[in-house]
Write a structure and sequence with these properties.
By secondary structure, the chain is an alpha+beta fold. It has two domains: about 100 residues, PurM-like, N-terminal domain (60s Ribosomal Protein L30, Chain: A), CATH 3.30.1330.10; about 160 residues, Alpha-Beta Complex (Phosphoribosyl-aminoimidazole Synthetase, Chain A, domain 2). The protein contains eleven helices and 13 strands. A seven-stranded mixed sheet has the order 8-10-7-11-9-12-13, with helices on both faces. A hairpin with a 5-residue loop joins strand 12 and strand 13. Helix 3 packs parallel to helix 7 and helix 5 packs across helix 6. The protein is globular. It starts with a helix and ends in a 9-residue tail after the last strand.
Length: about 325
């Protein structure tokens, strides 16, 4: 069967089943945002690897080299945040077409290093090779986490509240603005483009949440709320119920999605690359946690739904109807 017929999620499951033969009892492998390996009692190494391909993950010349360097590291930092870890080291591999200007490569590193310094990450090595095209970026990032503090996708229970750290849809809206000449408020345009080019990984927020010791499961929102939530549901062997009126939609998405004949909700659920945290907590913990989070980060937590015993993802609409939801966003194959 061709991978286009099998699908990405099914392919990863089959790969995971094969490589599980190499796993040990002191590690967490494929299935979470990053791998977790115990290096000494109570202390774990967190490792994530991401690849970005020109034409799939970014468009040239639609993004500057500095922004590309920043974003390439940001998506990896987000994976470490999703595990409740502290990022430490990054390793950068580039497959470069021969016509690539050296200034482009150096500017790429300028953007990457600026974000690395912000979070205390050392760029500790990597590789460069020739490519017949396209440009390919591969980053491996390592961090550390205490074993009792690590976030996994598998700990959610029916009744747990499903929360996010911020509004959804802004990055996908930025992509729409890149692809189409929509006229909109300049401030909203700037916010959408900032979200698309320079997402801020929620490292500080994740570390704070880990200290509160109430999170039962977590991951980052990279592929879209529905796609990512499906992964959390499968790992926790639960279903989820979303409430349409509670899904936080970015103001830019609300303004611009209709220009593309899309509902803002559709873009918020399926758009991807938000890099907010998606996590679950017991319902009795939300009020004090939300108040403390607001005081600490000056932004609210949002409850978008709850985990359920019935497998699958459903939504209660604003009209009170129940709908079964299916992901309609981008899939690699």
């Amino acid at each position: 069967m061709k991978i286009g017929e099998l699908g990405e999620r099914a392919l990863i499951k089959q790969i995971a089943a094969l490589v599980a033969k190499t796993a040990t009892s002191e590690m967490v492998g494929i299935g979470d945002d990053a791998a977790v390996t115990q290096v000494r009692p109570g202390s774990c190494l967190v490792t994530s690897k991401d690849m970005l391909v020109e034409g799939i993950h970014f468009l040239l010349p639609g993004i500057t080299a500095k922004d590309l360097g920043y974003k390439s590291l940001a998506v990896n930092l987000s994976d470490i945040a999703a595990m409740g870890g502290v990022p430490r080291h990054a390793y950068v591999a580039l497959a470069l077409p021969q016509a690539t200007e050296s200034k482009f490569v150096l500017d790429f590193y300028v953007g990457l290093v600026a974000l690395a310094q912000q979070f205390g990450v050392a760029v500790s090595g990597g590789d460069t090779v020739a490519s017949p095209g396209p440009l390919v970026i591969s980053i491996t990032i390592q961090g550390e986490v205490q074993r009792e503090s690590v976030f996994l996708r598998s700990g959610a229970k029916p009744g747990d509240l499903l929360c996010t750290t911020g509004p959804l849809g802004a990055s996908a809206t930025g992509l729409l603005l890149l692809q189409h000449h929509y006229s909109c408020d300049q401030e909203l345009r700037d916010q959408a483009m900032q979200a698309h080019y320079r997402p801020l990984p929620r490292v500080d927020e994740a570390l704070w949440l880990a200290e509160q010791d109430v999170v039962t499961a977590a991951m980052d929102l990279s592929d879209g709320l529905l796609q990512d939530l499906q992964g959390l549901c499968e790992a926790s062997q639960c279903g989820a119920l979303l409430y349409e009126q509670d899904v936080p939609i970015h103001a830019a998405t609300t303004a611009i999605a209709p220009m593309h004949n899309l509902s803002p909700l559709t873009l918020a659920l399926n758009g991807g690359e938000d890099y907010e945290l998606l996590f679950t907590i017991p319902p009795e913990c939300f009020a004090p946690l939300a108040q403390a989070y607001q005081e600490r980060f000056l932004t609210p937590l949002s409850v978008v739904g709850k985990m359920s015993t019935e497998i699958g993802i459903k939504m209660v609409t604003k009209e009170g109807k129940w709908e079964k939801l299916e992901f309609t966003g981008y899939q690699h194959f």
